[in-house]
TrEMBL record:
Role played: Catalyzes the condensation of para-aminobenzoate (pABA) with 6-hydroxymethyl-7,8-dihydropterin diphosphate (DHPt-PP) to form 7,8-dihydropteroate (H2Pte), the immediate precursor of folate derivatives.
Protein name in the entry: Dihydropteroate synthase
Source taxon at top rank: Bacteria
Similarity section: Belongs to the DHPS family.
PANTHER family, alphabetized: FOLATE SYNTHESIS PROTEINS, FOLIC ACID SYNTHESIS PROTEIN FOL1
Length: 284
């Protein structure tokens, strides 16, 4: 199945060649209540300035979110979410040379975002909350990120096999909607429907996830798994995030989703060299 992602995708003039480097996705939350940066970028000018900063620091993808996904988050209406993200996406497309993804599980929001110029759908429910989102991706011919999620932490005797079955259901929804394999990206869902021990175990199965044959996005930035292991508040989880990023690259992940782009882009570059994904040249 590995041939599924070896053909590079060119989006918005940017080529995502998963064999050549690990791509950095910068997080841009235009929300008042996200767990790490809520309220910081919820106007267009601040959002564009932050996006430009992240691209300058090494992000190739900007992930725009209009509803917090922190534990206990408050759901917002489709209309409110669209009103938050569409002006930002339109400005990003006009001003920032990056691939734009929209972080939503809602079909109507995804359609509005793609029609506003976004290039990728990033769904934290793996097309299982609103399966219509897969039809949006198929109709508009854009890639979709299918994150592992569920409404409980009861995985039985084998967490990986249960999580794999969940992901296979998401893949089936995507395929049935007409999404080609080349437009499917998987995410292990670190921090979602998992205890700290289960998050660690899922991390240890990243190579098995990669072996499913799709590109893998790893999103561990500042998450509670790191805080619980290191006993640190959210603003002090940089080093722990870096450890998870490097570990993920060693396991074969293709993209990382982070808040601290400068530091994680440097860690990613170094890890890419060490695992042989990028080739070091003396003039570097």
């Amino acid at each position: 199945m590995l041939e599924k992602y070896t053909t590079p995708l060119t989006i918005n003039g940017i080529t995502l060649d998963y064999t050549a480097e690990t791509f950095v996705m910068g997080i841009l939350n235009v929300t008042p209540d996200s767990f790490s940066d809520g309220g910081k970028y919820n106007n267009v000018e601040a959002a564009i300035a932050q996006a430009k900063k992240m691209v300058a620091e090494g992000a190739k993808i900007i992930d725009v979110g209009g509803e917090s996904t922190r534990p206990g988050y408050e759901r917002v209406s489709d209309e409110d979410e669209i009103a938050r993200i569409v002006p930002v996406i339109q400005a990003l497309v006009a001003e920032v040379p990056a691939v734009i993804s929209v972080d939503t599980y809602k079909a109507n929001v995804a359609r509005a975002a793609i029609e506003a110029g976004a290039h990728i759908i990033n769904d934290i429910w793996g097309a299982q909350a609103e399966p219509g989102i897969a039809h949006v991706a198929a109709d508009l011919n854009v890639p979709i990120i299918l994150m592992h999620n569920r409404d409980n932490t009861d995985y039985g005797a084998n967490l990986w096999m249960a999580a794999k079955a969940d992901l296979e259901k998401s893949i089936a929804i995507a395929r049935d909607a007409g999404i080609p394999d080349s437009h499917i990206i998987l995410d292990p869902g670190i921090g979602f429907a998992k205890t700290t021990a289960q998050n660690i175990e899922m991390m240890q199965h990243l190579d098995d996830l990669v072996a499913m044959g799709y590109p893998v996005l790893l999103a561990t930035s500042r998450k509670s798994m790191i805080g619980n292991v290191l006993k640190l508040p959210v603003e002090e989880r940089l080093e722990g995030t870096g450890a998870t990023v490097v570990y993920g690259i060693e396991k074969g992940c293709h993209m990382i989703r982070v808040h601290d782009v400068k530091e994680m882009a440097r860690a990613t570059h170094m890890a890419d060299i060490l695992v042989g994904k990028r080739i070091f040249k003396e003039e570097e």
